[in-house]
Amino acid sequence: MRETDVQEPPSWDGFIMEIIYLHQQFRTKPNLKNTSASLRFEKAAVVFNVGAASSRIAAAVDRAAEGGVKEACGEFQRAAGAFRAVGQMMEGEEGTVDMSPEAAAMLERLMLAQAQECCFERALAAGTSPAACSKVARQEPDPYQDVVSGCRGGRRDGVEEGVVAGMWGEGEVGNLLANWLLQTEFKTPTESESLPYAIKAALYYEEAYAALVIPPLQNHFERSWLSHVQLKAAQFNAEACYRYAIELHDKMEIGEEIARLQFGINAVVDAKRTARGAPASLYDSVSRLEQDMNQNLEKAVNENNRIYLMRIPAAKLLSPLPSASLVRSASKSEVLDAKAETGL
């Protein structure tokens, strides 16, 4: 029997996700101007504005309300699809940096990161089985995007439960994922069930940050924008380590628990040292997570020194944590579908 219990994760009820408001943050430098007589450029600019509007709608959604998380997730996926379309339309075209394929790809990853963050909230509030998470991670069923579109904003739009389950196959996995999409209540998830969503959110944020620090996007954005994305990536990496470590403690795998906690804490400390100008609320959230991890680390080290005496593996020897994505960029037809409009 363990001598002490690790601290459980904080409640995520009413958790406020730090949203990057695209309509405020993404702008070209005022001294840079561009003129173009290209019709393709004009079309791409319109689609870009659709993506910006969708991201703003998603940020304004009350995720504490019934169906709010799913509605926000759908709008972020729509925004991701819009920016993906912009990148495709601007291939070979001359224009400003913010309309370049590189910028569009970065924005697509950023929108997917925020959509995945919605899934993380949803997973903690409702729960999914490990089998369903595995099926989503492999991204086997092509109809997923159509199902999500039909269920956006908490609406079924004529999609019946049996039809949705059939798309994902029969049995427990198909039924569980169908219920998830149709917003049926579930048991509270275990740490391992929410873990893959945290890792995937971190990966999306890392990809967006990597694009922001190299040409042509390097030095194009305000430092606070980069800091926000950088700190978000560190937060979700640490969140995954924190939750995985709790399960390791339950299994009395104390050596790896200590290594995972140290890895997560180092990620947060390094990001806080270099990320300047991010919102104070995000700093506070990350600092609370760091404090919880340090408390669990201290308990684990004390137990290991007095009871278990397990070897602590080096960080480079740790296997990658599993990831699973429940989001993808909307198709161009979905992006431009006026019937899907939710309004501000």
Automatic annotation (TrEMBL):
GO cellular component, one term: endosome
Gene3D superfamilies named among the record's database cross-references: alix/aip1 like domains
Gene Ontology biological process terms in this record: protein transport to vacuole involved in ubiquitin-dependent protein catabolic process via the multivesicular body sorting pathway
Pfam families according to UniProt: BRO1
InterPro entries: BRO1_dom, BRO1_sf
Name of protein: Uncharacterized protein
